[in-house]
Amino acid sequence: MIIRPQQHWFRRLLGWHGSVLPHIMFRLGLNLAMSVIAILTYQWYQGFGFRLTIAPFSLLGVSIAIFLGFRNNASYARFIEARVLWGSMVITHRSLLRQIKSILPQQEQAAREFAALQMAFSWSLKHQLRETNGREDLLRLVPERWRNEVMNSPLPTNRLLLCMGTWLGEQRSKGAISDILWQSVDANLNQLSAIMTGCERIAGTPIPFAYTLILHRTVYLFCSLLPFALAADLHFMTPLVSVFISYTFLSLESLAAELEEPFGEEPNHLPLNAMCVTIERNLRDMNDDLPLPAPALPDSNFVLN
Amino acid sequence: MIIRPQQHWFRRLLGWHGSVLPHIMFRLGLNLAMSVIAILTYQWYQGFGFRLTIAPFSLLGVSIAIFLGFRNNASYARFIEARVLWGSMVITHRSLLRQIKSILPQQEQAAREFAALQMAFSWSLKHQLRETNGREDLLRLVPERWRNEVMNSPLPTNRLLLCMGTWLGEQRSKGAISDILWQSVDANLNQLSAIMTGCERIAGTPIPFAYTLILHRTVYLFCSLLPFALAADLHFMTPLVSVFISYTFLSLESLAAELEEPFGEEPNHLPLNAMCVTIERNLRDMNDDLPLPAPALPDSNFVLN
Amino acid sequence: MIIRPQQHWFRRLLGWHGSVLPHIMFRLGLNLAMSVIAILTYQWYQGFGFRLTIAPFSLLGVSIAIFLGFRNNASYARFIEARVLWGSMVITHRSLLRQIKSILPQQEQAAREFAALQMAFSWSLKHQLRETNGREDLLRLVPERWRNEVMNSPLPTNRLLLCMGTWLGEQRSKGAISDILWQSVDANLNQLSAIMTGCERIAGTPIPFAYTLILHRTVYLFCSLLPFALAADLHFMTPLVSVFISYTFLSLESLAAELEEPFGEEPNHLPLNAMCVTIERNLRDMNDDLPLPAPALPDSNFVLN
Amino acid sequence: MIIRPQQHWFRRLLGWHGSVLPHIMFRLGLNLAMSVIAILTYQWYQGFGFRLTIAPFSLLGVSIAIFLGFRNNASYARFIEARVLWGSMVITHRSLLRQIKSILPQQEQAAREFAALQMAFSWSLKHQLRETNGREDLLRLVPERWRNEVMNSPLPTNRLLLCMGTWLGEQRSKGAISDILWQSVDANLNQLSAIMTGCERIAGTPIPFAYTLILHRTVYLFCSLLPFALAADLHFMTPLVSVFISYTFLSLESLAAELEEPFGEEPNHLPLNAMCVTIERNLRDMNDDLPLPAPALPDSNFVLN
Amino acid sequence: MIIRPQQHWFRRLLGWHGSVLPHIMFRLGLNLAMSVIAILTYQWYQGFGFRLTIAPFSLLGVSIAIFLGFRNNASYARFIEARVLWGSMVITHRSLLRQIKSILPQQEQAAREFAALQMAFSWSLKHQLRETNGREDLLRLVPERWRNEVMNSPLPTNRLLLCMGTWLGEQRSKGAISDILWQSVDANLNQLSAIMTGCERIAGTPIPFAYTLILHRTVYLFCSLLPFALAADLHFMTPLVSVFISYTFLSLESLAAELEEPFGEEPNHLPLNAMCVTIERNLRDMNDDLPLPAPALPDSNFVLN
To answer: Percentage of chain A with pLDDT > 70?
Structure first.
């Protein structure tokens, strides 16, 4: 499941990082303008007793860096947790089908039916998290006997899990699997339930809005005032240093905001699509259900989605 | 279970963040007043040898930022743990009912009875954590045969879990489920026990009070003295810089205090109510017990509770 | 299990925080004295070329703050882990008794006998961790047939767990419970073993002593030298700023030292007593073994122990 | 499984650290050149009002150090997680074979066949992660009846796990092991699935590229500008201090970049080869399948790979 | 398992901390010498334009403190993980023997034989981790029928675990325990496998050497240059401040290096010996196999090993 895009570093620099730089370009421009204003006016307004020096900004800047470090940690932790949850999805789907094939050898039809529910589950969760329409994927994948039930439910992903449970219960009822084997498979269904709900939690509960707002405000105000604090000491060097410091703070703040919502379709978000294809490839390969769908490839901007 | 409120960013800014800004408004006003006093008096009192400079405040400010970062981490960890516990609640309830329906197919009555205990458990825990009266919800949900037992117990949430255990034991006694299936369901009951007790732990054991107090005191004193350290260098700029730095420290300290107790009904607290509705919707949908209750929506201030 | 004491904030401020302030009062007084000496003498000794400025103390202070942040994290992690272990104790005891009552319905005597062993286990662990004499509690709780065995063992807490295992084995031998049910209960006994040993680990392995010593020394020396670095710049303000900075560093260092050993009986330690009462109340309530013992309440200093 | 290379500290210094120093040698040289230019020119360009002082660089440097600390943490966490996953591989393989030998005593042939699949699984995962050709190792290890199936699959590592599941299912079908024993072994196969997918996740999802880029850029620009900020104050000491500070920042940034991809063949990467040999030695020893392969030893540069 | 040594604080200060102070004594002395040189020469070499000021050292010092904080975290995490693994060892051994005694009541001989294998396992792991000769302990503990097999194996600790698996398989073969009970005990054997391999991982994979080297170098160079940066400002106070700052950095760097390898026999390392005795005491007490060995006591330097 190697999903790292292969690309020339220069295009990657422009293509990927574009996702942060465009977001802060306007504010960096503003900062440049403020720097010029600061150089032109500081001697005039200092005459009235309005003075700014670097010392308090140093204290403030380091404090903001510490709080921004906290926010980066929190956002990155959400990104990583989301990635781990989708990794567990791959783990669990592989384990589930391996169990079914070990318990019910030579029953290819049953294994393919179950695998179809598994694949539908992944795609359905992807659509739920991105708030896109999963109708087409469900039509393609869900076996006919459950199609109506799933597609009419307001909570189709959870309903698919219920169908897997029903399928398993039927195998037990007709004696194909014992209670113990039911238990082993059921433990992996619990796992899918945990993965689904974990993703819903990340999607549904952002970092407390006040954190985001406090840091956004303070970073913004800090960068705006900075040129006025630097102008007296640095004079013509003010724009360079001010834009540099602003770039460091604004870009990290902006990236943290992006990683906070890992299920989107921006370049720094998780490639859910590619992961669903990976799951489908794995399950179909285990069932010798050829040909496999092609692995997802980065688009012309070298972005997987 | 998407519970993210949809709202105009401007109203969100006023509505949500209002929960922190009002709390510190008074202290920011005080800081402004101190700044004015500092500008008016610093030349006078420096004449007597009472001098404050920025350097020691820089050392102190950065140290406080480091300790405040620690406190933010601790508070946020409590918030996240509480959210994860309620996420596990959703996971476990879904898994439990899926197990019951897989094990006992076509026994709709039994599944609905068990689901009623599950729903009552969530609502009861909500009321326990918020110290509100859960009588109404228990009356609405608990099946009649357990109603007296539960409502007379001093520990109704734990008693509901005991009832689930009893229900399960009865199914086993009458041979409807085997020991092994009992074991699988029982593992999820253990999980509910862990969730309930985890929430009680967070509600009952605050961050050691001395931490809160030391940081509250030092942040407060730091902000009060700051204008006197800035006045000599910044003169008329003192109020702006002093209020800005104070805003950064006070708002983060205030938010940390709020997140520390995640089960309240303030805007930055967890929407326990909405989560109980989500659980009820999921369980009723799985039982085709229609119509589903409407999902909880943010109120006119865009706050879910 | 709400164990948060209800009290007037002012008394709480005096009563709780008293646990840190008294410990550092002497050192703060010393710091005040040093400040006065510094103001009186700095012009004299600077004449000989002995000079201290704020700059190196700024570097040192921030470094110490970073290392103190590390120590705070480590101490707080111990406190939290200890609290989580005792939370798991409540979880596991509730689950164990729920299992017994689900497996062996209508066998009230057996359930009460087992619950007695559970309660004795909690109290015995409390006494072991606090190195107090648990004889009275063991006499009160341990059923007669195991009393001698437990009270003569050099390791009574572990012996009580062995008794639970024996009790369980007997139920299995006489056919009251199947191997599978034995397995489910046994998994929770493993859990109790993990809790007991985890607490022993925290109690028996402090943070490496060298950490404690290095930080204690550097904080102490830093605070003692600080007035001499401040005096030239701040003059009469030296005592205020010096005591303020010292308060911040000394109180956090002192609190970290206290939290490092969470099983003591100081105000910032864990209320093991109250938690044992909570466990007893829960188990007796589940057995309808009335009247329940009263919940533990804070003493006149608003401290639970 | 002691894989620490034994070597003279001086050679270790040159050999191991070489992996970082060569990467930054060019940039350190550039920094030295900039320092010389700065000393020669600063008086000239300051005449035009282009001034740089240390104060804003101090603010910037500390901020970058904080963010670099975050990046180091993230990279090191990936390294550690990768190492723990391969440690779990050793754990699980040992446990699996111990189970097989405990369940099927005196069936040496079966145990060796299963162990062969286990060894092939480790080597295959190594080749997958390093994107090398595993054909030779698969030919050497995979028992003949599965050889074609495995070697023709586009996902051979996962296919090997499927084969272990099939092998286990066959033992169950022919009555050699009961459902319960199947369950215990199957739980460890789930574990192998988790390990494989965890490694794929680390290999396939780098730290968001924007983080890497932002820090790489800011560290680089910071070091390039630094000499111009130092020259006025330090004069001829500029090169020493500038190269020293640059060394600290560049080397940590460079090492973080290296640890981010722990499955490579550089000296600071994980010795996957040595770990596969360790697994093979353990499994063969348990089967008394002598002689054991020699443990992997560091090469002439004291590097294990 | 209280292993905290009881000692007079003054001797503890000398005895324990001695493990760090002697390691850095030489470097502190060097620093003192450099300070004297700096005071004597700074006016002379500044005349040639070689100037050092505190400002860049402040930036560098805080950065190094941040990175050193990272290294301390990593080393301490290794120490804690090692301690938790040995705590799990105690947990698992207690649980295993409790299970055996619950399953096979009145079979004292069998329980003692199994306990002997358990004790041998702990001692053997200790010898493996410390690279000492375990022959004597194995001769004392391993029951005769397995003695040759274990003592001839190149991997005796893992072989002992295999013997426990074999012992368990024999009990199952002769019908003394059912498959389910086999499963419960086997789960704890998996746990022992995880503990053994986790310890091997910590012992065999140090923190990437480049980290250690970069920090060691920068701390060392920083401390050596520091006096020259301080001399102009502090004059005769240079030695005091320089040695103080150096002590803080060097001692933490030295302690981090020591904790990184927690299985040694230095005073800040884990008392593996005492823990093996604790395990032996617990298991013998559970079997009423009296008299118990005496608990390990600190030596005359108050050090447990």
So the answer is: 92
